[in-house]
Design a protein that fits this description.
The chain is an alpha/beta fold. The chain has eleven helices and 17 strands. The protein has helices at about 15-35, 50-55, 65-75, 90-100, 105-115, 175-190, 215-225, 240, 270, 275-280, 365-370; strands at about 10-15, 35-40, 60-65, 80-85, 100-105, 120-125, 160-165, 200, 230-235, 245-260, 260-265, 290, 295-300, 310-315, 325-330, 350-355, 360-365. Strands 1, 10, 11, 12, 13, 14, 15, 16 and 17 form a nine-stranded mixed sheet that branches.
Length: about 375
């Protein structure tokens, strides 16, 4: 992704329209080959200024809250699939009014709200009790999971009004994980599919990464579709839509030395890229490598007062100086949706990189964005 950094006021997220369309074309290939419908999961990527582009390819959005559902309803204007561990009584009528599909995490939630359903199709989230994710915090099927109904607690005689099933057990996984999961799901819940109209295979399908096995995914879906031809099939990846479409550009605002050289940036892991600390992981930087692979070594730190606001240790071909620009790669997903104003640090601007190389700033944040979160 080539960007004229001279024209970027930092910090700034920049989403490449070209890379976004590249991902959407891959997803559309899967839709066209299998007949499945793919949704955008807003929990990963909710940059609504590009919804008109995404809307040309995908069938709708997946929401986990009332505000995500409203954003999808107002800005995406296609199907809205809501799925939450629990719905709040005072919010339910509104979220249902935005939704085409509502997935309930338990039969008790279904009983509580079934008489309030006016237009949305109802589904139950199930737990196939098959783990493919190794990091416990991201495993929906781990021991004591609160997400989905296990077969032991599935109320097969109380399915009147339920038109679909939903399961989600992946995170950044290739098609082989899905291919192993599906037989486990069918072994436990396959007998109920004749009573259903739709099935949602959830997210975590890393469809747009370079080594993803597209043909295995398509063949797995087609094989399932041959067995259950009347079911509408949904997938709801979020990260796959925004994967490698965006960067976060930051600037060096100071360089200090405490046994090692430390560059302080006008960004923050804690505020602007929280997954760096939560997962944790170390983001790639354009033109940088691991320590000592290049001549000049630096620890990159954020501008918050959190002692652990450290992005990572890197080496560069040239020495950094105050004003040097740093480009963090793959920063479109799980950044804008998770960032915060800790310490009153302003959120990065949001921009698009257009086909002609120009940059359009679509949102700039200020004091009111910080103040309005407080009382």
């Amino acid at each position: 992704m080539e960007i004229d950094l001279n024209n970027v006021n930092t910090p700034c997220y920049i989403c490449s329209i070209k890379e976004l369309i590249k991902n959407l074309e891959i997803l559309d290939y899967v839709q066209n080959k299998t007949g499945c419908k793919i949704l955008l999961a807003l929990k990963a990527f909710a940059m609504f200024s590009v919804f008109p582009i995404i809307r040309d390819y995908l069938q709708g959005i997946a929401a986990s809250s009332i505000d995500e559902a409203r954003l999808g309803f107002e800005e995406f204007r296609k199907e809205v699939h809501a799925c939450s561990p629990g719905y709040i009584i005072s919010e339910f009528n509104e979220i249902e009014s935005y939704s085409s599909h509502i997935v309930f995490n338990s039969f008790s939630q279904w009983y509580r709200f079934k008489n309030s359903m006016k237009k949305a199709l109802a589904g139950i989230r199930i737990n196939p009790e098959h783990s493919e994710v190794k990091i416990p915090i991201y495993d929906p099927c781990g021991k004591y999971s609160r997400l989905g109904v296990t077969i032991k607690h599935f109320e097969e005689h109380n399915l009147e009004g339920i038109t679909g099933l939903h399961f989600h057990n992946l995170c950044e996984k290739n098609a082989d994980s899905f291919a192993r999961t599906l037989p486990e799901f069918e072994k436990k819940f396959g007998e109920f599919l004749s009573k259903m109209e739709w099935i949602n295979f959830g997210g975590g399908h890393h469809i747009t990464r370079d080594d993803y096995d597209l043909e295995l995914l398509c063949n797995t879906i087609l094989d399932f579709k041959n067995r259950y031809p009347l079911l509408d099939i949904y997938l709801e990846p979020g990260e796959a839509i925004a994967l490698n479409t965006g960067v976060l550009v930051a600037s060096v605002i100071d360089i200090i030395h405490n046994e090692i050289d430390i560059a302080i940036l006008d960004t923050s892991a804690a505020a602007h890229m929280p997954d760096v600390l939560e997962v944790p992981y170390k983001p790639k930087i354009t033109g940088a490598k691991e320590l000592s692979e290049y001549t000049y070594n630096y620890r990159l730190g954020g501008m918050s007062c959190l002692a652990g606001d450290i992005i990572g240790d890197y080496s560069f071909q040239k020495p950094l100086k105050i004003g040097s620009k740093i480009v963090f790669e793959d920063m479109a997903h799980y950044t804008m949706v998770k960032n915060n104003t800790f310490n009153g640090i302003r959120l990065p601007s949001i921009a698009t990189l257009n086909a002609n190389g120009s940059i359009t700033v679509v949102k700039k944040f200020g004091y009111e964005d910080y103040k309005n979160r407080l009382s």
